[in-house]
Amino acid sequence: MGAFPSAGAFPSATARRLSCAEGRCWEACSQLTEGTVIIIGGAEDKVRDRVILNRFVALAGGPDAIVAVISTASSLGAEAGERYRQVFTELGCAKVRPMHAMTRNQANDETTALALRDATGIFLTGGNQLRLSSTIGGTRLADATLERFRHGAVVAGTSAGASAMSSHMIAFGASGATPKQRMAQIAAGLGLLPGVIVDQHFQQRNRLGRLLSVIAQNPSLLGLGVDEDTAGVVGPDHVLEVIGRGSITVVDGAASETDAWEVRGHRPLMISGVVLHSLPSGYRFDLRRRHRVATPVLHALPGGGAAASS
After folding, report:
1. What pLDDT was estimated at residue 180?
2. Which residues are designated catalytic?
């Protein structure tokens, strides 16, 4: 791990994040991918096998992990942070720090940022992603998170926390299978995972239509729809590994055609030529090259795992 930067070093992290938000190439953002990102579709198992949370703890350092839990998105406030503190302690973490920055002033407080100075794992709870991004986006807390990520920390987000990982974020929107104009509102995310846009509770809340509508309007982005109790683990190589009980739906509109630019009101959109991948646990996808990574023949295991055939 590198030394924690001084407060004066944080503006450069902000500039890098804004560069990603402007839609520049993967290479311009590659310096932000030295750690691991975990995007969780929400409602992850906290009491049984805890496959996803166990992976987070392992990547953070196991018994030596120092975990910060940021519960800004949650309406439950400190209670949400305390719940995850209990879970991570049960999984073997000796040091867990719940943090609940409720205002931008709190998120800009130097002591708040310094609480992340030695964190090896940072976990963003669920709730309201717009509350999360508008409260901590561009603050010392957000910049400290990016700095720890650049020095190898694992940053995980569940539900709203997952949505906020990308440079572009679905702030809110409607459900339904048919893509329609004005179906989703886009806002700036935290920029840890550039080039994609994440939707969560995907199958359970019927969100295919809104992800398709976003990709129709932003075909340079790769859409990732993550089911509940399912996660995508993205390492420095930009390869996403699926773990958990459900699937991740990948929507690639790079070669698509659409009439989104001329459709008015809330009418249905035409989008044609989209490439769609539905990937359950054990499968991997290269986010930069936009193709599935070849894997051994897999068969399902109880508990949402997978194993190679002998």
Report:
1. 98
2. 159, 201, 228
